[in-house]
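Board notes, transcribed. Complex of a protein with adenosine-5'-triphosphate.
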Amino acid sequence: MPPNAQVTVRSPAKINLGLSVGPPRPDGFHPLATVYQAVALYDDVTATLRDDAAITVEVVGDFAVDVPTDDSNLAVRAARMLQVEFDVEEGVDLSIRKTIPVAGGMAGGSTDAAATLVACNRLWGLGLSQPELERIAAELGSDVPFCLVGHTALGRGRGEQVTEVMSRGTFHWVFAIAEGGLSTPAVFKELDRLRPLRRVEAPEVRPELLSALLSGKPAALAVALSNDMQAAALSLRPELAATLQFGLDQGALAAMISGSGPTCLFLAADSRRAVDLAVDLAESGLCRMVRQAEGPVPGARILPAPANR
Ligand code: ATP
């Protein structure tokens, strides 16, 4: 294979440390104010150059069976968007190694799209800058720009307008991955059903969340976490309340639904306690799978050789 004919990009899952949801706009989207953090659970997307214009995808790894391999795959959509907008004559074979839960509220599909933008930008020699990639990412989905940027960031609009926020140190997270997924639009619909008559305020990020991140103290972060989607996710999947409570009983500093769910996330005081909690959750039988990851970590990035032969 000629040099530069294959690129592998590693891209992280996201969590929402604060997720404030405003009333639906006329176009149906909900305005958000969110603080994202990228965590060290990754999908790897390997892109291999094709001489013809075809775009193909295969998915391997933990959650492969839940992911479409037709044109609805977000990685394929990302490659197609670049190909059309920049009149690219070549195609690409995409191979996604998935470790991020699918439909788990952790932006797995969005991060594959972000990884594909970075990979195809290199593979096809497009030379697009980071701001140009972020503009294209925003057209693909609300979480895609953050997956490019990574670290810890404020998300406005539908979540696609990202600005980095200061965060000190490393936080230790544990994830209880539930059986089955939850559709993000279904959770927004449930949220609107639960609060139809309430005056819903414009979305806001809590100042105590930003100061907790600056302090780097897990105990301060634990009391500043919030998620407006949690009540709606629990309404659709009431059994998740037992998982959250179990984590708190085992010493988690905080327990919360991740994004639109159904993944439950727990903040541990340190890495040793995170391991203990992960073991307890795995033995509890309350979830399909348990993962542990620290954050923040960078966004989508090209892996050095030898991954990129
Ligand atoms: P978010 O947190 O951004 O709302 P999510 O983590 O809940 O998203 P995803 O894992 O992105 O959800 O998957 C949502 C749906 O998107 C899946 O049910 C799947 O059918 C579809 N999908 C399309 N492409 C992908 C992909 N590359 N990886 C995962 N899911 C994909």
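The chain has two domains: 6-165, 171-295. The chain has a mean pLDDT of 95.
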